[in-house]
Amino acid sequence: MKAGIAPRVLCDQVKSTAAWLWDDERAKPVTDALGRIEKAEAARARGGLAYVEFLFTAHHASVATFVPTDVDARIRHHAWVTMETEEEIAQAADAVDRVAAWDVHVVSARVVDSAWGPLSGHNGEWLAVRAGALGRAATLGFETLAERLTSAIDAELERERAIFDEAVKGASASRVLAIATTIAHNLGDLSRVVEGWPGKPDLAERRRRFIRLGHTEGKPRTSFEVAGALNLAITANENHRFLALRAPRALRTSRAILLPIGPWFDAWGEAVARALEDRDRAEVVTALLELHLAQPAQLGCLRALAGIHRVTRGGLEVHLPDLPARIRKEALRGKVREAIDLPRERFDARIQKRWEAERDRLGLA
Length: 365
Known about the structure:
By secondary structure, this protein is mainly alpha-helical. It folds into three domains: 106 residues, no CATH class; 130 residues, no CATH class; 111 residues. The chain contains 17 helices and two strands. Helix 4 packs antiparallel against helix 5 and helix 8 runs antiparallel to helix 9.
């Protein structure tokens, strides 16, 4: 197996997408860990713990930014298959626990707080990483360690189930749908790793236990199946990877303009409009219009455009001269115009009605 991306390059990539971390005192555990470049480099060739923990750190720092570092396959699979001893896997699992314990609010705007702690897509990342460790430990016959990792996954799943069950009892569409889409993402991350486990009989029971928990062929029965059904019905199109937003570099300049959970992007659009200069704002408008043209049914980018229009003196019209000719004509017509004319409160009311309809259809009322 190749040694992997150099720690210095990886650190530079994090700085490219989240340089603001180094100005935030709350991020000191993250930036201090990213400063241990020499130690990580010394461990890289042999896949040592210091390098693996550096990968976890870079992923934690960047995965909710506009340009995440590309270490997913390595931390979910490749790093574990090089480990041969129970001690190696256990120490790396300890490193996962350390990184996962850092405050996710510092590095992500896609967080929902609850009585059981914060819920975010980061939880799905660590479910997937622990599943990679579990697959390796069980394959090598390290059953005590495998049971420890199984218990950690079970505990996180139970926590997420409790968060969802509490939210469904309330009336807030934005809360329950944000939780549902996050859980659907997290279960998907877990399932993809479990699906890639070796086909050993010893893993069969755990595979059944953790695979496709948010999917069902008939009427949803479990909390996770209901969350998956809600996400599929309302928010699945609203939280893709937003690749077009990688181009405007100005979006990487502040924690305050990290993208939240969709489709509620009005406030984000307003924040972008206030934070950026005209030329940078025009690049964001261009990217949002490209997203709209690529996925016309996606509502979040339209709400972001409405937010930008609302607080920009002169509205979106002022940016027309700076937009590429191919999309200039789309800036103020069709669904974009409808979004601009639709107040945020009425949009929220529409989402509320969709949630209430799905709640009644699923028998949750």
